[in-house]
Specification:
2 domains; mainly alpha; Fumarate Reductase Iron-sulfur Protein, Chain B, domain 2; 419 residues
């Protein structure tokens, strides 16, 4: 089967006009991939007639090889290899501006979201776990694993503590103390092991993804790096922190607000967690470390504010998914798994804190156990869930800077928007 592809870059002040010869591309549709996209995002991409409205509408789409029109064509033809190697898939923030303007209702935003899910699964290690995490029938098994691991850690608590000569006593300054049931050293050690497992898996996924990005860059004939890797990383991290491109969404601008709340709420909770974990060797801690924190401890205040921000952001996300279905989709299982897990972690965290201060036995221990189980699931399955978006999108943004993808001028619509 043959498909003739011809492209010409637009003239811009920053990029010279480049004539590209027509080349013959042999297409071998991946029917399984087409079925996977249809199951996740619907088969609306088959309605695409390549009018280019989606690319013209998107304020982030550059003049050189604009997206998402080419990705829609690749999806319709089942060109899995090209889509999984394409960094542009990750430069889309699913703001639905393109879906709103599409004259055929093909919903390019949902299609790219489904492609990103397939990308996470295909780059994950081990790959079978990526498939399992994204199928609802495996929920009992996937939750049972953290329960079993945490239960085993608690069962071995006393033997390990005696072997390592670790005491459960944490001091008279702690009035309401979980140490008898959940020693600080045990929880820290347990989650350190879980985090290392997740880190190894995500690093393997990043290596696979980076290799695919480089292969795509070579096939497109792009030149060498436009920036150093460090410079590209710094620019990308800055853009992530300020959510530079998210605020350009015009259809559902509240997505920018909800993501800001969730992002910085999660960052605040992560900072507090790292402070607690590093208490044994942190050079910034000059006085005796007392944990759990008192209610008016600056770290406790930061954790509570972060939890409230996370809760508020998640509430906005859920509202947006049901408020206007014409402009937004309610989301896939991939989306709801992350939202529900974060929501349960946040709610059980606040309930645990309340029960902790009123010393309601044994309820506080049971809720705390449930809280730890869902945190374990969140970390353990990070490389396979939508949580991995944070990693893969960052890598794609870095590569776009590094490879020179972002050197091309943005469309005139973006220039007018920013001006």
């Amino acid at each position: 089967m043959q498909d003739t592809v011809g492209e010409k870059t637009k003239e811009s002040p920053e990029a010279p006009v480049v004539e590209e010869k027509e080349i013959a591309v042999r297409i071998e549709p991946d029917l399984e991939f087409i079925r996977a996209l249809s199951m996740q995002g619907g088969d609306l991409f088959k309605k695409c007639m390549q009018c280019g409205t989606c690319s013209a509408t998107c304020s982030l789409s550059p003049d050189s090889k604009p997206f998402p029109s080419k990705e829609m064509a690749w999806a319709a033809w089942g060109m899995k290899e090209k889509l999984l190697r394409d960094p542009d898939v990750w430069l889309c923030f699913h703001c639905n501006d393109c879906s709103t303007k599409c004259p055929r209702g093909a919903r390019p935003g949902d299609v790219l979201s489904a492609v990103r899910q397939e990308s996470v699964i295909n780059h994950s290690f081990p790959r079978f776990l990526g498939r399992m995490v994204n199928k609802p029938q495996f929920i009992p098994l996937l939750l049972g694993i953290p329960v079993l691991l945490l239960g085993l850690a608690l069962f071995l608590r006393d033997p390990i503590g005696e072997k390592l000569n670790l005491s459960n006593f944490t001091g008279d300054r702690i009035i309401f103390n979980y140490s008898n049931m959940f020693p600080h050293w045990l929880i820290n050690g347990f989650f350190l092991i879980i985090s290392m497992i997740a880190l190894i898996a995500i690093l393997i996924g990043i290596k696979r993804f980076w290799r695919e990005l480089r292969a795509m860059s070579g096939s497109n004939g792009r030149a060498g790096p436009a920036k150093s890797l460090i410079s590209s990383a710094l620019v990308s991290l800055k853009n992530i922190l300020i959510h530079k491109n998210f605020d350009k969404c015009t259809t559902v601008h509240s997505r920018y607000i909800s993501h800001m709340f969730v992002f910085f709420g999660f960052m605040a909770l992560s900072m507090v967690t790292l402070w607690v974990i590093s208490s044994g060797f942190n050079p910034l801690i000059k006085t005796d470390f007392v944990y759990p924190f008192g209610f008016w401890s600056p770290w406790k205040v930061l954790a509570n504010l972060g939890g409230l921000a996370l809760l508020g952001g998640l509430a906005l996300m859920i509202r947006d998914r049901f408020r206007d279905n014409e402009h937004t989709s309610t989301g896939s299982y991939f989306d709801w798994t992350l939202i529900s897990t974060l929501l349960i972690v946040t709610i059980t965290g606040f309930i645990t804190e309340i029960l902790h201060y009123v010393r309601l036995e044994p309820h506080r221990h049971l809720v705390y156990f449930a809280h730890l189980v869902f945190i374990c699931a969140l970390i353990l399955y990070l490389p396979y869930s939508k949580f991995a978006h944070l990693v893969y999108r960052t890598v794609a943004m870095i590569y776009a800077e590094y490879s020179g993808r972002n050197v091309a001028s943005l469309r005139s619509k973006e220039i007018q928007y920013s001006g």
